[in-house]
Amino acid sequence: MVDDRLRTPGAVRDAERYTAHNYHPLPVVIASAEGVWLTDVDDRRYLDCLAGYSALNFGHRHPRLIAAAHAQLDKLTLTSRAFVHDQFADFCRELAELCGKDLVLPMNTGAEAVETGVKVARKWGYQVKGVPAGQANIVVAEGNFHGRTTTIVSFSTDEDARADFGPYTPGFTVVPYGDLDALAAAIDENTVAVLLEPIQGEQGVVVPPEGYLPGVRRVCTERNVLFVADEIQSGLGRTGTTFACEHEGVVPDMYLLGKALGGGIVPVSAVAANADVLGVLKPGQHGSTFGGNPLACAVATEVVRLLATGEFQRRSTELGERLHAGLQSLVGKGLVAVRGRGLWAGLDIDPTLMTGRQACERLMERGVLAKDTHGSTLRLAPPLVITVEEIDHAVAQLAAVLAG
Ligand SMILES: *Cc1c(COP(=O)(O)O)cnc(C)c1O
User: Fold this and answer.
1) What's the predicted TM-score (pTM) here?
2) What number does the ligand 1 atom closest to the CA of 258 have?
3) Does residue 259 have an active-site annotation?
4) Does residue 312 carry a catalytic annotation?
5) Active-site residue 3, yes or no?
6) pLDDT (tens digit, 9 = 90+) per residue, 334-386?
7) Which domains does the chain have, with CATH numbers?
8) Contact partners, residue 54, CB within 8 Å, separation at least 6
């Protein structure tokens, strides 16, 4: 007899029993994956339309990334930053070049990159801009998602993310996303940064009005404020360009990167900025035991090399058109609205039909895995290695779910 813990219901039950319930996963137990396809413990196959919230932009187990990881595992995995290792310089130089910035600072998770950005912006404010001690403020947007640390949830507008985690870190001003006048009005002489997602991922792939990001850039330059772009989910090819800011020709002062930078293998995040900004940090003022470790650098350097070819950005642009055309054809047939860029889409399902969760459960039964965000909103973000046929398949399954 097969041990029932090795099959879906038993494994789901045990996962619930022994973990905090800070997630509500779909009842599917994945055992292996390749490219865009996942296989569960009962040998059912699913098309991955979430891609680890964009941490798997290159698909599962991309051969070049796996090869880089294997080679590094056989040589050196960790030194700490107390010593220099032979994977470090290439990673930092190549990522800095990809970003068009002087310097990078490697960390591990996205939230750590955001925390690093906040710290650097404040120090820059005191040391370069001349803000009086303890007075720095940062302007952020409603509907933001920047991670889960106590400081970051302090300026979240999502009650689930924020409630009962106070006392909250002061020094943040929240303004409506996409409203340039409100943003400009919130900036005062002690503002050190504007921190924004160029497209709000968790909020449901919300694209700001055209002209907003260039306006933010202009206001930040005029008022001597750093423009910090959280490209952790929107960046690294997801929207058809290396950075989502590029769609409007905008270059922020600081990029926050994560998710896909680790190739779906290891957590790797980074801050990229010019020397006049990142140069404010001196030894002992910031750090991380695992940040910039040899395994992370080996994998992430290969990620940067994949992106440097432009192939994945092109795929996202071309296949994104196919995806969005397919989804647009479902507006009025169960979908109320479709947003997004490249291979990234937020869909509002007619709330009288079903919740986002129910849609995901029905898609799962049809072999497609996706994730709801708020209420009846679904987010699709397949790996950028998806094919035209696979996109059409996913859209057809969604059409069938919406048709009931
Ligand atoms: C996921 C995400 C983060 C946080 O990344 P973690 O690795 O989960 O800490 C921050 N910002 C954005 C825009 C994200 O999508």
Assistant:
1) 0.98
2) 7
3) yes
4) no
5) no
6) 999 999 999 999 999 999 999 999 999 999 999 999 999 988 999 999 999 99
7) 4-61+311-403 (3.90.1150.10), 76-308 (3.40.640.10)
8) 201, 233, 234, 236, 238, 259, 260, 344, 381
